[in-house]
Please model this.
Amino acid sequence: MNKLLSELSVGESGTIVKVAGEGAVRRRLFDMGVTPGADVFLRKKAPLGDPLELTIRGYELTLRKAEAACVTMEVKE
Model:
């Protein structure tokens, strides 16, 4: 099942399928290792849902909800 990264619940994990966005946002995501095929685990969400704390490629990464909405995930059941 595919979901946006911003729609994941805490504790869910999946694999990145597609990274949308344009220009600097897309480049920034790729530079941080958010690329298709990478496994992601959602560790925490702030009380209002922004930002999100992820584990990707063995390190912790914090993304804004708007950036996470550019990433399509295949969720592991």
